[in-house]
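Pinned message: reference record for Molybdopterin-dependent oxidoreductase
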Amino acid sequence: METSTISRRNFLKLSAMGGAMLSLGFYVPSAGKEATIVKTTEAEGFGVELNAWIHIDTSGKVTIFSHRAEMGQGVYQAIPQIIAEELEVNLDEVNIVFAKGDNKKYGNQVTGGSSSVRTTYKNLLKLSATAREMLIEAAANRWKVSRAECYAESGHIFHKPSKRKHHYGELVLDASNLQAPEQVTLKKRSEYKLIGKPLRRQDTRMKTNGTAIFGLDKEIPGMLYAVVERNPRLRGVVKSFDDSDALKVPGVKRVVKVRMGVFSTYREGVAVVADSVWQAMQGRKALRVTWDDTGFEHQNTELIFRRQADELKNNEGLSFKTQGDVNAILNSASNKIDVVYQTPYQQHACMEPVNCVAHWQGDKVEIWGPIQAPDWVQDYISKEMNLPRENVIVNMTFLGGGFGRKAFMDYPHEAAVISKMIGAPVQVVWTREDDMTQGPYRPGISYRCEGVVTDGEISAFKVKMAGQNNDHWRGGPKDKPNRSTSEGLLKPYFDSIQNLSIQDIPFETPIPTMWWRSVYASTNGFAYESFLDELAVAAGKDPLEFRRSYLKDERAQKLIDRMQEVSGWKKRKKGDGFGVAITECFNSTVGQVVKISKLPSGGMKIDHVWAVMDCGWYVNPDTIKAQVEGSIVMALGAATMHEIRFEDGLTVQKNFYAYPMPRIYDIPPIEVYIMENDADAGGVGEPGLPAFAPALTNAIFDLTGKRIRKLPFDLTTVSS
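Predicted structure (C-alpha cells):
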C-alpha cells in the first residue's frame, strides 16, 4: 500500500483519463448539523469544498482521503475499517491517502483531543452507505429489476433471483450519474462484519518493511539540509556569530541567522545549511554564537513552584465552577483536609525528533513533514510570510509520535524561513537535544485541595489550580479561567457534591507550554483522584464504593462493577496494596486498579494494572488495547522516572540519559477491558493515561500509609 498526497482536482483529472469514477463526499453546513452527502462533481455548487470523500474507480479500487494525521494512534486503520463496513468491501481493497492541509475543504484538521473517529464516524458511515446504495441502484437499473432484489457484498452487487453479479468498477459510470439518496439505512452493530473486530492494521506492513514515509524519510530534488543553533535560554537574541570555521567544514553551503515564530513571540537562531545532515551538524559544532538575554527572566524550577505555592495560599483565582457555600463550610470546619499536589513539567519526547521539509517558490511555499495541524500551519505561515493561504501547501507524512508537540507551528515556519533565505528546498532536522531543550512542554502545575467530610459524606470540596494556561500562548483571554480546569473529573460529581468550588489561578512564565497526551487531565487527574482517595479515607469508606456513591449514572455504575470484577477488588487481602482511580476526558471514561507489593530489597513493585475503558461506539478493540497500554507506559514514565527542570533559564535534561524512558522490564502486566454499550463514540488515544498515576499512588498509600502528593517519585525508594 503506497501512501501519497495529491489534490482532489488532479486526482479527478487523472482518474478521468483512466475511466469512470464514483466520487462522494460529505458537506457539513454548520456545527451540530447532520452532514449532507454529495457527489464531488456537485460540490462546487455548495460554495464550499468537501470534508471527506470516497473514490471508486473502474477496477473497483476504493480510495479514501484522510484529513487527519497518523502518529501511531490508529486512524490510518480506523477510517478504512469504518468505510469498508458500510460500503461492503474487503479491507485490503481500500487505499487511504493523506490529504493536503485545507480547512475550507476538510474543516478542522488538527489531530488532537482524540477526535479523529469520534467527530467523523457517523458521517463516514453515512457516506459509505450512500455509495453502496447508489451502486445497488445502478445495478438494478442495468438488470431492469427491483433494487430490493439486489444486495452488496465483497465489492460486488448481486441479484438474488438470477445470481448475476457486477463488481463495483463495472457500475461506477452508471452510479456517478445518479442522484445521491438523502436517507440511507445504516447497519445495526450486531450486523457489523468489520467494525468491532480486532483486524490487523493497514500500516503495520509499511512500517516494518520501510515503505512508510515519515518526515525524516522525505526527499525532494535539490534538497539541502539544515540544523539550527538556537538560544539555549528559550528567550533572547543573537548578538553576533562567527561562521568562519563552520564554512570550512566540507559540504557546508550557507550559515544564516533565522527568526522563527513561537506562538505570538519569536526565537532567534543561526542555521547551518549543508549537503547532508551530518555535515550540517559538524558545521554547527564549529559555529560560535554570542547571545543577548538582557531583560529576560532566567527561570528556575524551585522558584516556579514556590510562586505557585504562594498563589495558592494568597489568591482565590478565577471561578471555573462554584455551587453551594464551600468557603463558609471550610472556614468553620475543625476537621478540614488541606493539601497541595504538584505535577512537573514534561517533554513530549517523541521517538521521531522534530523535522520539516520546505520549498519556497517565490509566490508560494510547499511543506512536507510530521504535522498534526496542517490547517494551523497554513494560517500561521500565511500571516507571518505574507502569502495567500492557498499558496501555503502542507503535506502530511507519517508521524513517529506526536502527543501534541507536532501541532506546533514553530518548526514548519522555521523551515519555510530558511528555504526562502537560501533559495532552495531544505530539510531542517532537530537533534534530540534541540527537541528537549526548546520545548514546548506540558506545564508544571500545583493544586490546593480543601475538603470536609461530615458523617461519611463530602460536605465541601474545593480545588485551586495554579499553572500555565496553554490558551494564553494562542492569544486566549486572560480574564477567563482555564477552560480545562476540571478536565479529568467526572461530570456526575458536579451533580452529587452539593458544595463544590473549582478555581483557576492565572500563572505565567516565559516557558513555552502546549498540549501533552490527555492535556490537563494528565495533571488534574492526579490531584482530583488522589484527593478523592483522601476524602474516602477520612470517611472510613472503601475507595471504590466511595466513588460509586457519587457517580450515580448507569454507565459509571457498570464501569465500577467491571473494575471490581476483573481486578478481584472485593477479594483483596490484608497486606495487598490496591489503588483505584477513575478519570474522564474526550468523552471517554477509564477506571484503573493498580496492585503493588514491597520488594525485599526495598521500594515497590507494580504487580498488575487493570484498566476498564468506556469509549462508547468503537472500531477496533486491538487498537483500543494498544492505546491504553501505551498510555499507561507513558504515565508510568511521567509519574516515576522523568521530569523537565530549569536552572538559570536553561533546561537541565537534554537527552534520554537524564530523561529516562520506561524499559520493557519496567512494564507490569496490563489487562485492558472495553465496555459495550450504544453510546456515541469517545476518544481512545489519550483517555487511558490520567488514571494511572493516582491509582498507583493510592495503592502505595493503601500498602504503606504514605501519601505521595508530588510527582515524579522514585518507585524503587518508596518505603513505609
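Pinned by admin. Summary line: Residues 8-209 form a domain with the Aldehyde Oxidoreductase; domain 4 fold (CATH 3.30.365.10).
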